[in-house]
Amino acid sequence: MAEEIKRKVSIRTCTGCGQERPRHELLRIVRTPEGQIVPDRTGKLPGRGAYLCPKRACVEQAIKRKRLAKALRNAVPEEVMMQVEQWLDG
Fold it and tell me: Which structural domain range is residue 31 located in?
């Protein structure tokens, strides 16, 4: 009999609402080692990451309460937030 291989699902917390979800369901924003803050569509860029639910309310809450900036330990540029909003719309 073949044994089933159980894979561990990586759980991350949304910086907006605080809800825990599997990593692949969340949007990742990363501060690269060079200090740039960019949306990470692949989830594999090196650097410090913060996760957001793919909901506009979570993104707005993370910005309003400055949770995203705190998680990334750096201010988040407006252009990055525009890219995230386009990502949500697209």
Answer: 11-89
Beta carbons within 8 Å of 32's beta carbon, 6+ residues apart: 38, 45, 46, 47
In the prediction, which pLDDT does 2 show? 61
The whole-angstrom separation of Cα 50 and Cα 13 is 8
For the entire predicted model, the pTM comes to 0.86
On whether residue 35 sits in a domain, the answer given is yes
Cβ-based neighbours of 42, under 8 Å, separated by 6 or more: none
Is the CB of residue 19 less than 8 Å from the CB of residue 29? no
* Closest by Cα among 32, 17, 27 to 50: 27
62 and 68 Cβ atoms separated by less than 8 Å: yes
Residue 5 lies in a domain: no
